[in-house]
Amino acid sequence: MPRWIILAILLLVVLARSAVFVLWPESYFDADQAVFGLMAKHLSEGRAFPVFMYGQSYILAVEAWMAAPVFLLAGVSATALKLPLLLLNFVIAWLLMRTFEREMALGPAAAAAASLPFVLPSVATAAIFVEPSGGNLEPYLYVPLIWLTRDRPLWCGAILGVGFLHREFTIYGLAALLAIEAFDRTLFTRAGLARRGVMAGAAGAIWLAVQVLKRFSSGSGPGTAFDSIYGASNNILELAARTCISPATALKGGARLVSIHWPALFGTAPVVCRNSWAATAAVEIPAHER
Question: Which residue in 35, 98, 135, 201 is a FRET match for 111, CA 20 to 30 A apart?
Answer without folding.
Answer: 135
